[in-house]
Amino acid sequence: MASFHKIIVIVGFISLFHSAFSAAQHRSYLRITSQEFTSLPLDIMVQAVISLFAVMWGVLNVAGNLREIQAAAELNATKWDTQLNFPSFYIFNHRGRALAQNYVRSAGKSELENSE
């Protein structure tokens, strides 16, 4: 069935090209005969519109079925606990340690060097 739609697309493009060529030929005929251009003949316009719709219909059927785009596909795999986890905002040196009653200062680098 897909080959039928491809044939419709090809025939539609050929017909669309033919209508464009006919429109250009009509304009050059009007210039040669010194007539004023008012509009395209009805048969050229009908051919252009029908071939345009044939191409659109064929392309839609050749493309196949569309799939839904899931915007939250990455978020489905993550757990709720790590949803708002930003490690770059972790702060370990803050004034909370001064408020703790039982805070024991850990050995810094200089104290460790002295103990060895």
TrEMBL record:
<comment type="function">
    <text>Part of the endoplasmic reticulum membrane protein complex (EMC) that enables the energy-independent insertion into endoplasmic reticulum membranes of newly synthesized membrane proteins. May be involved in Mg(2+) transport.</text>
</comment>
<keyword id="KW-1133">Transmembrane helix</keyword>
<dbReference type="Pfam" id="PF10270">
    <property type="entry name" value="MMgT"/>
</dbReference>
<protein>
    <recommendedName>
        <fullName>Membrane magnesium transporter</fullName>
    </recommendedName>
</protein>
<dbReference type="GO" id="GO:0022890">
    <property type="term" value="F:inorganic cation transmembrane transporter activity"/>
</dbReference>
<comment type="similarity">
    <text>Belongs to the membrane magnesium transporter (TC 1.A.67) family.</text>
</comment>
<keyword id="KW-0813">Transport</keyword>
<keyword id="KW-0256">Endoplasmic reticulum</keyword>
<keyword id="KW-0333">Golgi apparatus</keyword>
<keyword id="KW-0460">Magnesium</keyword>
<keyword id="KW-0812">Transmembrane</keyword>
<dbReference type="GO" id="GO:0000139">
    <property type="term" value="C:Golgi membrane"/>
</dbReference>
<dbReference type="GO" id="GO:0031901">
    <property type="term" value="C:early endosome membrane"/>
</dbReference>
<keyword id="KW-0967">Endosome</keyword>
<comment type="subunit">
    <text>Component of the ER membrane protein complex (EMC).</text>
</comment>
<dbReference type="GO" id="GO:0005886">
    <property type="term" value="C:plasma membrane"/>
</dbReference>
<dbReference type="InterPro" id="IPR018937">
    <property type="entry name" value="MMgT"/>
</dbReference>
<keyword id="KW-0472">Membrane</keyword>
<feature type="transmembrane region" description="Helical">
    <location>
        <begin position="38"/>
        <end position="60"/>
    </location>
</feature>
<dbReference type="GO" id="GO:0072546">
    <property type="term" value="C:EMC complex"/>
</dbReference>
